[in-house]
Design a protein that fits this description.
mainly alpha; two-stranded antiparallel ribbon; 9 helices; elongated
Length: 227
């Protein structure tokens, strides 16, 4: 079976974001093919995609390496998110489906319940799913792809603390969903902008160890080409 390059790309990206491949680490086709149990062809395609996304750089006479973004580049990501997430919420208010609303409301209910119980790890995952669903509700594949890429990069560069009052944070999510459900694009935009602004202070730049590669194996799931 030929493994889709998209699956290999997802696996490499996940390992970069999680720190398996540290910033500046060299990435060879042979090394990656062996790690994921695939041929070098999908690895080569995946590296090209990751280079276009900014996770990988190719150096003359040195091959592919994990990118080493500056602190300014990291700060720019939060600024871009602060601009694009409110736009996505406004579009969602105009284009969302009932299926989107059902998922968003379900996530808010779960988030509020977990917040009251102090289940922080669950909240982190639920928050990611909430913002992913809100982006999808925008009805714009291009905007959704940009926001997804931003979330990957922010997770790569930042450690994110839990808010001091998680119940209030999930109340903000609930208010955003209410605005989206009413079709109030401007209120959805304003609430999302305020929510993004409040979250900036929770982000701490990671200080990576340079050049280290962990050796655990990661076999690509050949049953799915999802990104």
């Amino acid at each position: 079976m030929r493994v889709p390059a998209q699956s290999v790309c997802t696996a490499i990206r996940d390992d970069i974001v999680s720190g398996v491949f540290e910033r500046g680490a060299r990435l060879t086709e042979e090394q990656l093919a062996r790690r994921y149990g695939v041929s070098r062809v999908p690895v080569r395609e995946a590296l090209r995609t990751l280079e276009s996304e900014g996770f990988v750089v190719t150096r003359r006479h040195a091959g592919a390496h994990v990118a080493e973004p500056t602190e300014q580049e990291a700060a720019d990501l939060l600024d871009m998110r602060a601009l694009l997430e409110p736009l996505g919420a406004a579009r969602a208010a105009q284009r969302r489906t009932e299926a989107h609303l059902k998922v968003l409301r379900g996530l808010v209910r779960l988030g509020q319940e977990r917040a009251r119980r102090g289940q922080g790890e669950d909240l982190r995952s639920l928050g990611g799913w909430f913002h992913e669903t809100l982006a999808q509700a925008s009805g714009s594949p291009a905007l959704t792809a940009l926001l997804t890429q931003l979330r990957h990069k922010i997770a790569w560069m930042y450690a994110v603390d839990q808010p001091a009052h998680p119940v209030e944070a999930w109340s903000e999510h609930g208010a955003i969903v209410d605005a989206v459900a009413r079709g109030d694009a401007e209120r959805a935009r304003a609430l999302t902008a305020l929510h993004a602004e409040r979250s900036v202070g929770l982000h701490r730049l990671k200080r990576p160890e340079r050049g280290r590669v962990r050796v655990s194996q990661h076999v690509v799931n050949t049953a799915s080409g999802r990104n």
